[in-house]
Request: fold
Amino acid sequence: MPDAVKKVYLIHGWGANRHVFDDLMPRLPATWPVSAVDLPGHGDAPFVQPFDIEAAADAVAAQIDAPADILGWSLGGLVALYLAARHPDKVRSLCLTASFARLTAAEDYPEGLAAPALGKTVGAFRSDYAKHIKQFLQLQLLHTPDAAEIIGRILPDLARCGTPSALHEALDAAERADARHLLDKIDVPVLLVFGGKDAITPPRMGEYLHRRLKGSRLVVMEKAAHAPFLSHAEAFAALYRDFVEGV
Reply:
């Protein structure tokens, strides 16, 4: 339905907030109503313990009044999967970027991360968030010409990461979550965008989702890492615009 009204909701990843999309939003068509939401306990959103993926999906669904195009990054993509499965009437399309159905490896899921690798990745953020979120952005934007400008624009708001207990509980919830049983229930167009250099959610996680989500399209941006919408903003925005326009 190319002529349908586009209403886009952006869901951020762990340890971030809605401002991580501040550079992407102006690149989307001005005629699209676009909302970036804060997950519970992140940014300005209140936190009621414990952090729960299903409850987070329900909280986003409560903000949606008509079938919408949902873009989820990392943990936000996991929330988007639960949103699409629990509230199919609220979802017109899904874009999952650098995301996962399950984060940790299992005997029947070799695509996941080994626990030591995961612990090393997130341990730094737990010890000094403000320092490491800046380093994370610098690494993601290493070869981006206007990296300093982008970081300067989004870092002050992004550094307000939310409630420390919420961050810890959200990470624990992500490590425990397993949405593989939901994938067969999702029946909307799906765009999967992964970074070829992503060590947090490597492309093999996208390949797994692609096999399980019927009719999905997988795009691997070979030179991107864990935040393709930041490091390759214009290419990502063009890809997403074309996808949504074609739904």
Q: What stands out?
A: The chain has a mean pLDDT of 89. The chain is about 40% helix and 15% strand. The first strand starts at residue 8 and ends at 11.
